[in-house]
Amino acid sequence: MDSGEIAKKIHIIFSITSLIYFILMLHYFLTGIGGPILLSVTMVPMSLIIYVLNALARGGRLYQRLSFKINYVISAIICILSILVAIYCRVEFINLLRYRAGAYNTLDLIVGFLILILVMEFSRKNHPVLFWLNIFLIFYALYGWIFPGILYHSGLSWTRVLTALTVDVKTGVFGDYPQIACSLISPFLLFLAVALGFQIQKSIVRTIVRIFGRRAYTIPQSAVFSSLAVATASGSGAANVTITGQYTIPLMKSVGFPPDYAGAVEASASLGGLIMPPVMAAIGFVMAELLDVSYFDVCIRGYVIGIIYYLCIALAVHLLSLRFIGRSSRNADSETVVEKVSIMDKVNVALFFSCIGLLIYFMGFLWWAPETAAYRTSIMLLAVLSMMLIARKESVKDKLIDWVRCVRMGIEEFAVMLSDIILLLSVIGVMVALFTAPGWTLKIGMLIMDVGRFSIAALVATAFIAGVFLGLGLPPLATYVLLVVLI
């Protein structure tokens, strides 16, 4: 069997697994059976399977220095272990939660060790700074007696550390943070996945680029406003660059923008996806839970910050346009980079932003729970897009094929996006548990209180400097959670 056939079969397995992943989440959306804890102990191992299969299905390898055969063997082992962990945690869920809490048996510890190793390996490959931080914190939790001064503690046993990070399902790998991803963040990602599956993001970019691409000096603004539009759904700087940069960077270069400036403009504009509601790189959901406020309150404040950010970017880009292009009124040849905007593109854009407005209305005026509002808006968007596809003047067979393709793409995107956030939050849950178990957060809190008693300005400055320093190596979500825990 050649590599092409193997890749095709892996992609089929990935699609089937993504469908199972989606069905599990849909079952929770509709019934809520088991609550977020049971969902977390199921979806964290399932997310590891999605992560592995996605890497193989996209033609890559988990370990670049190893051959494909060895990668397939390692991937199969990870998937099998993840399935065993998920089955065990679901079957023994009540026993772990109630009857054996604090007195776990040997098999519990083995399962806990397996899921911890798998999650730590994910962090080693994708978030190395978090990985090494957790390694240090594990060492500190075990051997705190060798540290001097305020860092001293008597040390925890291996068993206590392992259970706090795993089978104590309210903390660590299965704790509050992955539960937030499973129950609160997932409906918003479903909304985004529907839009991605039906290629709405491309319609948004094409429409905005064509609007700003009519004059040479306004072309750089297409990067700003297309990134702003896509940011409302992507919540990711990297995804934003991928979607919009393929159009905006060549256009900026074609009218005289230096390549490095063109790339910098697109990167700066795309980073706004991290702070633009409603997704906000998942930070807004965690923020609402930790502050015990409604997600709508976080969204409203996020829009203010996001709009200010994009206005500043637009002003900077305008000044750069005057420098490199001037006030030239000549037409720009944007058709060489982006296709002509169709009526369907305009309808897609109008539909998408109407759904964003509907989502805000549900949360802000009807006071629906955020997950309910996002889930129902997703269903509405899917229904309207499906009816629009059915209304096309094509054969029934072609319509069915297109619909299945769009739905499949949406389900796969949903599984990939949600699994990545669940695993990141699992790693963050490990970090928070390691800070909490030895009592370090209490000690740091006492120090911070002393600083605040001396000067509120000094406390704010400390938080700001710590955020800048941590943000150099950690993802935004990890930076925020770590600052909340420590400060």
Features:
3 domains, single chain, 487 residues, globular, mainly alpha
Segments where pLDDT lies below 50 for 5+ residues? none
Helix content: over 70%
Percent of residues in β-strands:
under 5%
Q: What is the string of SSEs from the N terminus onward? A: HHHHHHHHHHHHHHHHHHHH
CA gyration radius, whole angstroms: 24 Å
Question: Biggest sheet, in brief?
Answer: none
Mean pLDDT: 86
Structure characterization notes:
With 487 residues, this protein is mainly alpha-helical. It contains 20 helices and no strands. The longest helix has 41 residues, at 396-436. The protein has 3 domains: 3-174, no CATH class; 180-391, no CATH class; 439-486, no CATH class. The mean pLDDT is 86. It has helices at residues 3-31, 35-57, 68-91, 93-99, 106-126, 128-142, 158-165, 176-197, 200-212, 219-234, 237-254, 259-270, 283-291, 295-324, 343-364, 370-390, 396-436, 440-454, 456-471, 476-486. Helix 8 runs antiparallel to helix 17 and helix 11 packs antiparallel against helix 12 (259-270). The protein is globular.
List the helices and strands and how they pair.
Elements: H1 3-31, H2 35-57, H3 68-91, H4 93-99, H5 106-126, H6 128-142, H7 158-165, H8 176-197, H9 200-212, H10 219-234, H11 237-254, H12 259-270, H13 283-291, H14 295-324, H15 343-364, H16 370-390, H17 396-436, H18 440-454, H19 456-471, H20 476-486
